[in-house]
Design brief:
The protein is mainly beta and about 260 residues long. The protein has one helix and 17 strands. The chain has a single domain, classed as Immunoglobulins (Immunoglobulin-like, Sandwich).
């Protein structure tokens, strides 16, 4: 695979320093994460799980609900659909995902007018929750800015990839590392207002949105890729494979285990 540009995004305005490698003064080196749920996974779930939440526009740091978007739950093995729903005018969705009662991972494919098709991947099985969830989508401008930061343009024959790394309390994961296909590449932060700033750092604090710490790649070859996430102390948090789709915003959301036990 041709090496892609790996970057970290920060969803607060920290300014653009022209791409230097220094770390912002407000960077918190951590570690202040919670790994109490590491490798805690559901062994069984109801045969039908009701998914409900809100679909949000995550193009910029100011998120907004997305009306009339379509969400499809699919099995990673064969891409077969096991549930689908549409958001209302407030971006809210609710639909059933039909399974077998065994704990199973699902992907979510999202389409909405004006947004790039989203291929959302969760590294742990889907589980019942008493809390409303959310799903994200972005416009092409976020992907274009990501590619521009590394002196290239978004290639529709390849895919954009972001990896959101959470701890067990849905918090950030400072100083963690991510490898794609066993390679470590240049990291960067999101400078705010759509600006991606290349830097030589590890995962940063986001200070916003409670989505963990975010890394991204532009122009990733479509197909299967391995992903490994390691804590600052060397604890293996996740290792596995994902399917990157061409011309889409591919999002991998990582938890150490089932959040909140």
């Amino acid at each position: 695979m041709k090496r892609a540009a790996l970057v970290v995004v920060m969803l607060v305005g920290c300014g653009d320093d022209g791409g230097g490698s220094q770390v912002d003064s407000n960077f918190n080196p951590g570690p202040d994460y919670d790994l109490s749920c590491l490798n805690v996974m559901p062994t069984a779930v109801p045969a039908v799980i009701t998914e409900k939440g809100v679909l949000y526009d995550f193009t910029m740091s100011m998120i907004m609900p997305i009306p009339m978007g379509t969400i499809s739950a699919k099995l990673p093995a064969d891409n077969s659909e096991v549930g689908t729903g549409m958001t209302d005018m407030d971006g809210k969705y609710m639909f059933d995902v039909t399974g077998t009662g065994a704990a199973t991972r699902y992907n979510f494919d999202i389409t909405a007018t004006g947004f790039v098709n989203t291929h959302s991947i969760l590294n742990i099985p889907l589980y019942p929750s008493t809390m409303d969830k959310f799903l994200p989508a972005v416009k092409q401008s976020r992907i274009d800015a990501l590619a521009t930061a590394f002196g290239t343009t978004a290639n529709p024959a390849k895919g954009a990839l972001e990896v959101w790394v959470n701890d067990c309390g849905n918090g950030e994961f400072p100083m963690g590392t991510i490898q794609l296909d066993g390679a470590t590449t240049q990291w960067a932060m999101f400078g705010g207002m759509g600006v991606w700033v290349p830097r030589d750092t590890l995962l940063q604090h986001l200070q916003n949105l409670a989505v963990g710490s975010i890394a991204g790649m532009a122009n990733v070859d479509p197909g299967m890729h391995s992903v490994t996430v390691t804590s600052p102390s060397g604890v293996l948090m996740m290792t596995g494979t994902i399917d990157v789709k061409a011309g889409e915003w591919n999002l991998l959301v990582i938890y150490p285990g089932k959040p909140n036990g």
